[in-house]
Write a structure and sequence with these properties.
This protein has 245 residues and is mainly beta. The protein has 2 domains: 124 residues, Trypsin-like serine proteases (Thrombin, subunit H), CATH 2.40.10.10; 101 residues, Trypsin-like serine proteases (Thrombin, subunit H, Beta Barrel). It is built from 2 helices and 15 strands. The strands form 3 sheets. A 6-stranded antiparallel β-barrel has the order 9-10-11-15-14-13. Strands 3-4-5-8-7-6 form a 6-stranded antiparallel β-barrel. It is globular and about 45 Å long. Its EC number is 3.4.21.10. This is Acrosin. Pfam families: Trypsin.
Length: 245
Amino acid sequence: RVVGGVNAPAGAWPWTVSIQNPWGKGTGHFCGGSLIHSQWVLTAGHCPSAPHLPSRRLPWFRVVVGANQLTLTGPEVQVRYTTRALLHQSYFNVTDYDIALLELDRPVECNQYVQVACVPHPTDVVVSQLRDCYIAGWGHTTARTHGSDVLQEAKVRLIDGRLCNSYEYYRGKLHSYNLCAGYAQGGIDACQGDSGGPLVCRAAHDNFFWLVGVTSWGAGCGRAHRPGVYTSTQHFYYWMLEQMR
């Protein structure tokens, strides 16, 4: 969930997908993801390995692309199913190498509501210098509620990694491949059900967004000095290329 967010306009984040358990209650939404190729979705490692999913049914997830409201999908929405879930080989729990790729049964067609995100090459951009950052997801809107039916978006700030790993914040739990985003005072953050979804940032001189992070974990939702933790896409750029070959 995005805590402290607002309803996103339709088509605002056209690479954002809903990953669903076809056997789950309601829409079955349990994680977000980002389209990085017409047939591949980037998400968090803990999404396809979530304990509530019946393992024998892996990796049969439903992936809903181009949606804004999950219970009211129009002709712009495309539905695919996954054929493979590729977790990082060093993935451990939510804290280590929390990244995965899902292969779709057939490519999506790009249009106004469905587009592929730009993943920054290690030399394309200095992520720490990006200012205009956003998260989006259908997750919980407060720590103890349920998911949102309409896609939520929120503006967040990147927080310096050393500060985020300091005693006042996460006390050394972060890795070099993690990013922190949110606000020192809390209030705006990702939450349950937003995992795997995008953290995107825009450079001052650019009009387009870079997909810089995958929503990974945090302590609670929107708490002071406990910002959201994201897996850096730039760090895993070559890993992604290798998997999608």
